[in-house]
Specification:
The protein is mainly beta. About 5% of the residues lie in helices and about 50% in strands. Strand 28 and strand 29 form a beta hairpin.
Length: about 725
Amino acid sequence: MRPPRLSPLALALSIAFIGAAEAATPPDLSSATAAAVRPRDKKGDELPRVEVVGNAENRQQQPGSAAVLDQMELESSRVLTVNEALRKVPGVNVRDEEGFGLRPNIGIRGLNPTRSTKVLLLEDGIPAAYAPYGDNASYYHAPIDRYARIEVLKGVGMLRFGPQTIGGVINYITPDPPQALAGYVQGVVGNRDYRNVHANIGGGGALLDIIHKEGDGARDNTALEQSDVNLKYVLGLGEAGALTLRANYLHEDSQVTYSGLTEAELRNFGRDYNPFKNDHFEIEHYGFSATHEIDFGSDAVLTTSAYYFEFHRDWWRQSSTTTDTQCGNAFRDARLRGEAVNVDACNSRQGRLRDYVTRGIEPRLTVWHGLFGAENELALGLRYHDEEQERLQRNGNTPRAETGTIVENNRRTTDATSAFIENRMQWGALSLIPALRFESIDYSRSNRLSNRTGDSDASEFIPGLGVNYAISEQLSLFGGVHEGFAPARAEDIIDNAGGSVDVDAERSTNIELGVRGQAGSWNFEAALFRNDFSNQIVVGSIAGGSTPLAEGETLYQGAELALNWAQEGALGDGTPYLNAALTWLPDAEQRSAFIAVSNRQPLAGSGGNRRLPYAPRGLATLRAGYRSGPWDGSVEVQASDEQFADFANTGAPIANGAGQVGRIAGHGVLNATLNWRAGEPGWSGFVAVKNAADREYIVDRTRGILLGNPRQWLVGARYTF
């Protein structure tokens, strides 16, 4: 194994860590008002779980940007997809795909959102992606209905998690099981044959949550169906602590394709056109996890999580992009000319069949101590994680084939050991938070068709230093600097012949400075950020077609602002409210040409300080509403600035081109919701419309043109008991 890399920044921050620890006379800041770090006052109904942000007090003390979307906000705006929900957080760019948010494309602070590969997704603090080290691409997502709240953390606090420590961490929190019998049954219907049935029942520390949704997607020949069963149980163990057990089963059976539209197809047939009626996508996901917590009194808490997941994905399709020749050159050329094609005349159907097994265990210890003349909260953890991938491709010779010639048969494994240490040192109003993470990863790849096997490894120290200064109980400054790290995928670091590939991990230096607070009925958070990549990896099919694996230097910097206001009695007997999430990204630069790993040649059109693709200059979500008695109504605009689809920053699309290059115009969509709640237990209901003006707009050109979701109206009723 290569020795772990220790960068100059890591060395400097390590010296800062030691210097702070040895400070004999800390500054006298006791006159400032601050929420002091102290041993936790544990409540009896708290569950064993790992949180990213936590409660309001924890959020106020974070050294980086932190946001929480709670259940009230998610239900009040009746979010249809996780995409719609996450756009309520500054800095988060989410791109639609099939219509239900089943495969969200999430990017943070300008990072490319394709397949959510640049973010870390967690559920109850446990990895939510099926292979976060070896194949960090999201081809599935649990329904947004499953979650009680969503946490988003950026900055140095990410080093408590991993392996992605650059853009941000998104943690989905499932509901707490009740002790008394309680629950609800909800039904929702809408246009495009949308149906959603949700049953939630719990008691005695157990909770069963069942969701089934189905309907037509955003295009012709797209039918989506997803079922989700989630079980959660909390068991008190007396002096041995408490245990949270979780089990989940998710199934999707959808008619959905991969290819977008050519320029001529969009012009001749419109946004709904999709000829690929024979494409089929099916997944099964099983998950089991346990979190045990033991409280050692006022000085320490040990939380241990163990998890096991299986993910099985079969995607049979007749086209992957607008330029592939799976159905022949004539078929491709007809699409480029904008002629209707007959997929039943294409005697080809390819199955990309994937199976994943992921497991791990992670103990986390929190200790409160009084060293260095400060109030200290020490957090440290260790994780062992392993992944197995079985990848099979079968090429059939009929339009509806379900078997065929095997052209790929790969086994890939990833074993990762990681550790972190973070110590919050607080002197009155000032907190210093040095942190250090270590990642060690072993990869292997076996090509069973050629009997070739290869292996590789990577290891890294990832340091950071955060600061929080409480000006008052309502206002605090925060900031930090940390190295970012994201490992290469197994398929990138080992080629199909078993050879080692000269590709490095992603590395960046990330700086953040911000302020958060409350003034009267307003609360706010504003931040400046700079993410400077010494090495960023781009993979195939992220910008203007089949981009080869390449590396380059990039820079992202900008500002974020979150504003929330609510004033009871400001208009009659009700409460008007406003929410805003604003992102400004003036710089998303290619600071060097991207160099292809295969031949060390620059990618055509890259470099020259051009803007990076899929990095809109501005994002905004603005919501205004009014609550009075049982009624709650709101309108919301979610808007995105223009963006480029390729490294060369091509402006006008090619007239009869593949649709994979060209500027994507800015757009905004209008959502509206009206809720009625008589009280609990009892009935409640809502009506909602998404994209009320039925705006047509392009969201993606990666595999051809994809447009945003058309108008969707929803009517729902719930009975709570």
